[in-house]
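tool_call: predict_structure(chain=1)
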Amino acid sequence: MDDRKTPATDTVANTEDEDWVDRLVPGCVPRDFAEPTPELTERVACGLRRLTDEAK
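tool_result:
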């Protein structure tokens, strides 16, 4: 029987903390979500249509 335990890292040991995910994500990643504008949605749709047309 193997009595060894996996060593707990700081991240694993503190998963009970409410901010443990924030420590995993780099600071440059935005934490707020902005609702996409209709213009952005249309630009994305056009780009996706163009990609699918080029793939045919």
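agent: The radius of gyration is 22 Å. Proceeding to next step.
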